[in-house]
Amino acid sequence: MILPIVAYGHPILRTIAKDIAPDYPELNQLIADMWETMYYSNGVGLAAPQINRDIRIFVVDSKQIFENMEPGEKNEYPGDEGIREVFINAHIKTLNGDDWPYNEGCLSIPKIREDVYRPEEVTLEYVDENFESKVATFTGITARVILHEYDHIEGKLFIDHIKPLKRKLLKSKLDDISKGKVKVDYRMMFAK
């Protein structure tokens, strides 16, 4: 089922999400709905707070980024071919490498894109959809998508990483989003 995406201004986007247990109700259906919602909305990642759930789950499909790159572009990200994975109860163990810029957007903040600096590498401890424990290191664009989604389960947004002056210049656009004055091709949920 395609779920509505929570828009900027909704308080759940500023909530630190909680870990869940393996018996979380209808977890498999929730994960399936998250994938369907993400693909329908043309996203490469989606976190539970974006569908109005305060739990530590996000899905990432960075493979599609690489599938849509020009052949030469792929060489800019050695060792990163993309992933399609579910992250549950994720917690960062380490961040490594230099911060580098990339133009990010967010389904919850439509029609706004900004350069965001993030580390080259992240190591996460998490469980997958079968609740098997994992510790894995990700680099390049995949690390960036993971860090963007990880921010969502920590109550942060990509605009928190841009300079205050730039954020101030975006204020009217952000206000329009929170008031529902933006048109997108997917369902949105606004703060009441």
Write out key terms for the chains shown:
single chain; 192 residues; alpha+beta; Peptide Deformylase; two-stranded parallel ribbon; 5 helices; 7 strands
List the helices and strands and how they pair.
Layout: E1 5-6, H1 27-40, E2 45-47, E3 57-61, H2 63-67, E4 84-106, E5 109-127, E6 133-139, H3 140-153, H4 164-169, H5 171-178, E7 188-189
Parallel strand pairs: 1-7
Antiparallel strand pairs: 2-3, 3-4, 4-5, 5-6
> What is the alpha-carbon Rg in Å?
16 Å
Number of domains: 1
Low-confidence stretches: none
Helix content: 10-25%
CATH-scheme architecture? Alpha-Beta Complex
What is the fourth-level CATH superfamily?
Answer: Peptide deformylase
Number of strands: 7
The CA-CA distance between the termini, in Å, is 23 Å
What spatial order of strands do you see in the largest sheet? 2-3-4-5-6
How would you characterize the largest beta sheet? 5 strands, antiparallel
Binding site for Fe cation: 106, 148, 152
Protein name: Peptide deformylase
Function: Removes the formyl group from the N-terminal Met of newly synthesized proteins. Requires at least a dipeptide for an efficient rate of reaction. N-terminal L-methionine is a prerequisite for activity but the enzyme has broad specificity at other positions.
Keywords: Hydrolase, Iron, Metal-binding, Protein biosynthesis
